[in-house]
Amino acid sequence: MAQQPAFDQKSIDRFLTIELARATERAAVAAARLRGRGDEMAADRAAVEAMHEELARLPVRGRVAIGEGEREAEPLLYVGEEIGAAAGPNYDLAVAPIEGATLCAKDMSGCVSIAAAATAGALLHAPDAYMDKIAVGPGYPDGVVDLDREPAENILALAEAKGVAPGEITVCILDRPRHAQLISKCRKAGACVRLISDGDVAGIIFTTDPAETGVDMYLGRGGASEGVLAAAVLRCAGGQMQGRLVLETGEQMARAARHGITDPRKKYGVREMVSGDVVVCVTGVTDGPLVDGVFFGKGFIRTETLVYRSATGTVRCIGARRRVSGGD
User: For the whole model, what pTM was predicted?
Assistant: First the structure.
C-alpha cells in the first residue's frame, strides 16, 4: 500500500480555514432563527452554543484568547478555554459568535458572526475594557492618521492622501452619548459621519473597502476585544489601525496586568495587536454592507461568508447553500 502524504502545515491552514467558516456559518444560522424576536440574550446564547460545538471539531489545539468573557462568568468560549483536537498544532482563537446582538434582535442591518485563528501567541490578550480606536483602509502612506491627533487633522490628512476634499470623507462612529463631541468635531471638519448603532468590528472592516461600503475612516471608543478582532481583519486585508486601552479603575489596571499589559497608555498598531499569521471568517446574520444575511429557503439555507488570510493577502467570499429537512 502506498504511503499517505504528510498533512503539512499549509494543508492544515487551508483545512482550518474551511472549518472556521463552518463555525461562523453555524453560529450565524442559529442566531438568524431569532432575528426580530427582541431577545438579544437568546440570540447570543444560540450563536455561542452553535459556534462552540463546531469549534470543538477543529483539527488544532485551540485556546480562546478573545472570547465571551472570564471563565467565572461564561460557561462557553471563555478566555483561556481550550478547544479542538488535543493532538493538533497550537492556535489562538478570537471569537464573536454574534457581533451586534441588538441588530439581530431588531432584525437590523449589519449583524455578523466572526471567528479568527492565529499562530499561538500572536493575539494581544486584551482585558475586558474599552479601547480608543482609529482605522483607515489600505493604500495610504504609513502614519496618515494618528490616534493622538484631532479629528479635523486626521480628516484633512486622509482627504489629501485620497486626493479629495474633506467633505468627501465619511467617518464611521458608534452612536453613543460618549461620542457626541467627536461627532461634532468630525462634522465641523466637513466630513460626513455615518452613525452605527452596534457592531464596531464591522464598522472598522468597512474601511477596508470604501468603494463598496462608503466608509473611509473609523473613529471612537469601543470594546478592546473587538479592537483585536478588527485588527486581525486589517492584518489580512490591509489598512491601518491604532488602539489604546482605556483603563480608568484600579480593578481594570489589575486585570490588564494579569493579561500581560505593562504599559497602560501604550498605543497599539495592527501588528502589535496581531503579530503573526491569522485567518478570519465573517458570516452575515442579517443583510449588511459586508455580507448578506442568512436566507431560509424552502428546503435549504443560504449563507455568505468573507474569509480573510494574512499569509496570502486574499479575501474570499464563500456562498454556501445546504439542504435541510422539512422540519429544520
Answer: 0.90
